Amino acid sequence: MASESNNILETKDLKKYFLVRRSLNPFSRSERRYVKAVDGVSITIPRGKTVAVVGESGCGKTTLARTIAQLTSPTSGEIIFDGRLIGGGRASRKEVYKNIQIVFQDPDSSLDPKRTIEDTVGEPVRGLIGGSKSGVQDRVYRSLAAVGLSEEQAQRLPKQLSGGQRQRVAIARAISPSPKLLILDEPTSALDASVQAQILRLLIELQSTFGLSYMLITHNIAVAQYLSDTVAVMYAGHVVEYGPTKTVLAAPRHPYTITLMNAAPIANPWKRNLLSVEIKGEVPSSINPPPGCRFNPRCPYAEAICSEVDPPLEEVSPGHLVACHFKEKTEGVFAGAAAIGSGQTKGPIKAA
Ligand SMILES: Nc1ncnc2c1ncn2[C@@H]1O[C@H](COP(=O)(O)OP(=O)(O)O)[C@@H](O)[C@H]1O
Ligand code: SF4
Ligand SMILES: [Mg+2]
């Protein structure tokens, strides 16, 4: 897998629906119900860069990650990795897994408590790369050294390490087959703030050492701000705002992003955690999403068209895309970078 493309990953109109209820009559399609977990997502990750995906629980972030990494098949749409279409058997799973690795939120559930660190980190090397026993061991030790763990620590079990060290093990395992893209699914949200900062610094270091590209899923605005070049804001399976992180977080234009930013206005930016955000109104159902714009039941700007026509993503400034019929009304509504931490707002949007 190698190409001249500037982008390591592109998704085009990617969809992943889960069938949740089937009619007793197998010939009836009318009663089939789907969770539209990912519903037409198009994102691009340039080589060596980080794209953050932010949004509330249940908006489809993990499903997007799993679909890109071919842990589940897409319902439709395209995934172009390293300049080539993958999925639908176009590239072998082994080839995809070698090149795209995921680090999950909770190392405690992703590490086998009975296996030594060396054994765990060696698993993808044995399965995806192969080679002699000493060759595998060498690669494992190099991966562990890259995350700051020693050969002595490699002989321990997960419970003999701290939470931060266990997440380092999960990262070492992910980088051990030398992937090109790491998908980081809430990589620090199970950790204390001080450990969180160390892991984020480590991720930055690994990115520059190995030229890695990252898709970073996070609830935390500060984490997205710290690590990412581009941010995609997801709402109910859709990307509703997309663009350079600095622009989107300093001057968000989608009413949902503005609501999120205003709802997490506390002094310590490391606690700008969207998990604690509560937004007025009905949380959308991914089974029966509202017609038109999915944010319309909660949006203070909504007008009749919003419950009829789903707005497309359109550019409001170079590279900054917003899916809203009334995006001209939100210009300057968020008080901007100065408001981060103070929660000031000029406009009508307020969280519950
Ligand atoms: N295997 C599955 N079967 C049915 N529904 C699923 C499955 N996985 C996820 N979902 C649903 O898809 C939606 C998105 O879930 P998820 O991708 O985990 O969101 P997030 O990571 O943003 O919290 C949720 O409504 C969730 O219940
Ligand atoms: S399209 Fe309408 S409902 Fe959706 S965010 Fe814009 S104003 Fe709100
Ligand atoms: Mg998730």
Give structural notes.
With 352 residues, this protein is α/β, with parallel strands linked by helices. Residues 337-352 have low confidence and may be disordered. Helix 2 (93-99) crosses helix 4, helix 4 packs across helix 5 (133-146) and helix 4 (117-129) runs parallel beside helix 6 (163-175). It has ten helices and 13 strands. It starts with 6 loop residues before the first strand and ends in a 30-residue tail after the last strand. The structure holds adenosine-5'-diphosphate (ADP), iron/sulfur cluster and magnesium ion. Adenosine-5'-diphosphate (ADP) binds at residues 18, 20, 35, 37, 55, 57-63, 286.
From the structure above, extract its key features.
five-stranded antiparallel sheet; single chain; binds adenosine-5'-diphosphate; 10 helices; eight-stranded mixed sheet; binds iron/sulfur cluster; disordered C terminus; 352 residues; Rossmann fold; binds magnesium ion; alpha/beta
